[in-house]
Amino acid sequence: MSRRIQSVAARLALLALFVLMPGWALAGPWPASGEIVYQITMSGGPPIGEARHSWSHDGRQYRMQTTVRTVGLAAWVKNLHYVQRSEGAVTAAGLRPARFSVEREGKQAELAEFDWQRGVVVHTRKGRTRESAVQANDQDVLSLWHQIALGSGRPLPDRLKVVTGRKAAESTLRWEGEEFVELPLGRVATRRLTARAVDGSLQIEVWFATEQHMLPVRLRMTDDEGGVLDQRASELRVAAAMNGMDG
Q1: Three-state SS across the chain?
Q2: What is the pTM of this model?
Q3: What CATH number has the domain spanning 2-238?
Q4: What is the pLDDT of residue 156?
C-alpha cells in the first residue's frame, strides 16, 4: 500500500502535463483570479488526496500555483505535500512563462527558467543544471492550464511540448466531444479531450467546463499498468475577467 501511495506523487504531477493546451476555440475573457479544488481518487476507491489550484493576473503579468496533499488513510500511510508555482508574462500570443518551480518537503526545489531569446529552458535539480529547447507557445505545466482562457482562436495543435522542473515532454491531442459530468460541485456541461504521451506511458482525459471559462473540472489518467487516477472538481471560484494583454 505504501509503495502504491508513493507513486501517486509522480502521477499527480504528470496530470498537469496535459491539462490545457494553447490555441483552442474562443473561450471568453480569462478571469483575473480564481481557485479550483479537486478531490482525488485512485481506481474507483475513496478519496486519497486534494489538489488546490489558484491563479491571478493583471493583463500583463500572471502568477499561479497548485498545492497537492494526501488525505484520509493515504495521508496516514504516506504524508504527501508539494507545491508547484509559475510566473511570467501575458502577451497577445498567450502566456509566456519565465519561471516554474516545484517544492517538496525535505527536498531541494526543482526549477525551470525560460530564456526565450536563446530558445531554451534551464532546469536546475539537486544542484545540477541542464537545458532543453523550447519554441513559441511551449508552456510549463501550470501556465498550460490557462492558455485556453485567452481565446486565441487557433486550431488544436497535433503536439505540444510542456516543461517541468526536470524535463520537457510532448503529447498528442484529440477532442472527443461534449457531455455532462457529475462532480462533487454538481452536474457540469463539458467538452472532453484525450491526450496521450508520445512514449505511450500515459493516457489522460480532460473535461473542460464549457460554461465556466473552459476551466478543467475533471481529469482522469490511465497508466501503462491500468491504474486510474481521477481528479474531480469540488469547488470552483473565479473573479472578474480581464481582456487586457501586452502586444
Answers
A1: CHHHHHHHHHHHHHHHHHCCCCCCCCCCCEECEEEEEEEEEECCCCEEEEEEEEEEECCCEEEEEEEEEECHHHHHHCCCEEEEEEEEEEECCEEEEEEEEEEECCCCCEEEEEECCCCEEEEEECCEEEEEECCCCCEECCHHHHHHHHCCCCCCCCEEEEECCCCEEEEEEEEEEEEEEEECCEEEEEEEEEEEECCCCEEEEEEEECCCCCEEEEEEEEECCCCEEEEEEEEEEECCEECCCEC
A2: 0.80
A3: 2.40.360
A4: 64
